[in-house]
Amino acid sequence: MGRPSVAAERREQILRAAARSVARHGLAGSTQERIAEAAGLSRSHVRHYMGNRDELIDALWDHVITPYVASMAAATAGREPAARLRALVDYLFGPQMARNDDDAVIEAFISGAMHDVRLRGRVYDTYSRLEREVAAAIREAVPGCGSAESLRAAYALLCMAFGNSMLGTLPFPASRPAGMRALAERMLAALGERA
Description:
Blueprint: H1 7-25, H2 32-39, H3 43-50, H4 53-76, H5 81-92, H6 101-113, H7 117-141, H8 147-166, H9 175-194
Domain HTH tetR-type: 8-68
DNA-binding region: 31-50
InterPro entries: BetI_C, Homeodomain-like_sf, HTH-type_TetR-like_transc_reg, HTH_TetR, Tet_transcr_reg_TetR-rel_C_sf
């Protein structure tokens, strides 16, 4: 009888170490050697379980972003259109989007995407898919809202939510995040009034 595979456990160990490394040293400073050291493994183990650097970076992006996408989908699933849109706003401006350790990794990816075409495509694919999903929720909840208008509104909503989250560690008064959410709600209400 053979030994049980430890591949899933090792991949998780490496991805957690990679996230810590990227949060601390950025993408460029997170070499396979540095990640291996943080994981308590050899570089050859990192390559064995994760592949080359591009494959490791892709896996790290999925590791960090997938929980957000999944929890947003769970928060909005099974609701009628208007309630789904309200739940989406609740999610984007709620505690799920509060600053946490993953934000430094996500910001490193976005920053790295400015200089790396392959990485830019990877990050853009995720965010453009999210934009389309938010736009679809807007169109379903706001009869008469067209495709182009819903995409603009979705982009604005995401920018507002992500900017709100990014500035969350600064000592702005609580009225600022609340005001941003209220502004997002007014923007969505105005779409309904025009339709």
